[in-house]
Amino acid sequence: MTQSVETEAPVTVTGTPVAGRDPRLRWALLAVGLVAALALPWFVYPPVAMDIVAMALFAIALDILLGFTGLLSFGHAAFWGSSAYVTGLVATHYGVPFPVAVVGGAVFAMILAVPLGYLSIRRSGIYFAMVTLAFAQMVYFVAYQWSDLTGGENGLQGVPRSFFGIDLVETESFYFYYAALPILLLGMWAAWRIVHSPFGRVLVSIRDNTQRARALGYEVEKYKVMAFVLSAGLTGLAGGVFAINHGFVALTELHWSTSGEVVLMTVLGGIGTLWGGILGAFLAVMLADYLASSGFSGIDLVTGTVFVLVVLLFRRGIWGTVRHQWLARRLRRSSSRRSPADADPAKR
Fold first, then answer.
1. What is the rounded distance in angstroms from the CA atom of residue 143 to the CA atom of residue 81?
2. What pTM value is reported for the model?
3. Domains of the chain with CATH codes
4. What is the predicted pLDDT for the residue at 19?
5. Is the pLDDT score of 237 beyond 50?
6. Is the dihedral of CA 213, 215, 218, 222 positive or negative?
7. Of 56, 308, 319, 335, whose CB is crowded by the most CB atoms within 10 A?
8. Long-range contacts of 301-304 (CB under 8 A, 24+ apart)
9. Cα 146 from Cα 154, distance rounded (Å)
């Protein structure tokens, strides 16, 4: 799988630097996204709307590794599923409000990511992907065998939505959506801060040229592990909310196919863009829900076909392609406004 990465950093075309995105446009996109998130359960079945936002954060968390660090992980289902199980167990056995249980699941995912990340980053490319896949399948096997705790192939059932005794939130999916939405939005904001911080710039430099980043004095392996752990923590937030939303944790949440689905969503929207993960999650979840409600059984066939078409037609993903075309048009427009004297250094 080959795809060029478009990040939020300023780009250069034909040697001419292009300024970063207009702050007004950035705030406009943020406002549109926030309004869309608030309005979503009015137009989409609330549990499905919650799945869309949770999967969007999952895709964004993976994008921190794939798009901004250059590490393709096929094992993120381990953090998604383990957080879902821990969240369900904490909510069931301790009766705490679900935000506390979700945070507990996210913390567990980060703890689990420390040894897995430390061992995995010793490899790169396809070898890194295969190592993370192997670790995820080990976690899947442990959950399957530890049926007394996880329920085995029957899953963890009866996960409550405790929320400070507020019945509307605990019984109505519509109101639960608005109670859980701030958790996921906070995770998305954290991802944005990570990739736009000096730490995020170092990750991009590691992705672009690992040897040069090491020569500049950066501890590449340390940064990779930190990115791995942070990505796992955001994945854990999404997985915990997903478990509370369904009131059930299936063993498939730990399966390798879950990792494949989120990779598909990220590539579909456009890697290295953050917004692409949101768009990819929306399209994938809505398509799967529409096909399932229509009684169509070949969901994987259709989603796979859509994925292949997008990769062929939109080399940078849907959002990445749109953003690239907009930047190129902006560059041409700014170049046309320059006078010939400004364009030719010899005439200055």
1. 9
2. 0.87
3. 45-336 (1.10.3470)
4. 38
5. yes
6. positive
7. 56
8. 303/264
9. 12
